[in-house]
Amino acid sequence: MAMILLGRKKCIEDEREGLYYGFEMDVRARKAGIALKAQKKLDDRYNEEEKLGTPDRLVAWMNAVLEGTHAPCPSSQWRKIHFYLRDGVVLCKFICKLRVAAGMDSVKFMANAHTPFVAMENISVFNKAAMDYGVEEEATFQSADLYEGQTKGALINVINCLNRLGFVANSKGFTPSYEFMPPPTHDDDHWTAKA
To answer: Where is the Calponin-homology (CH) domain (predicted)?
Structure first.
């Protein structure tokens, strides 16, 4: 029996009887004050990336790279991305493909990440492998950003890391290449995407 937490809803999977949904008490206090303002800023940053289409392009690229080795991400909606990447297995398979194409060794990871400890270890393995591949340490993210992922703002660091990984992969000539959008420009009123 495996349990997967989806926000406040708990999905319990039993191979003999299918899926069951139940509710779980929310044990965390709501954010307030500075923490709430910081969370809103992160959510706004994610919304900006979403308007630029960054999550759509990342999901399309990851699905193309992992085609035939892992089920595709069903959507570029932030909760779907979070659930798809949460255990770190997809990230590790993804970085293995990039590293092997660059002539580097594959990384070892736990393919069955049923516990939080194993999932967070897989995410840590991905971050180390990404840095070894050429992504700057500043562009990586904390395991909790992805594993807990209670809001879309927490996912912005993951999106930024994968976006940077796409740039590095393109510089190494990896195919399929990552189709990125040029960075936005800022005028006095707002950010705008370059066409």
So the answer is: 52-166
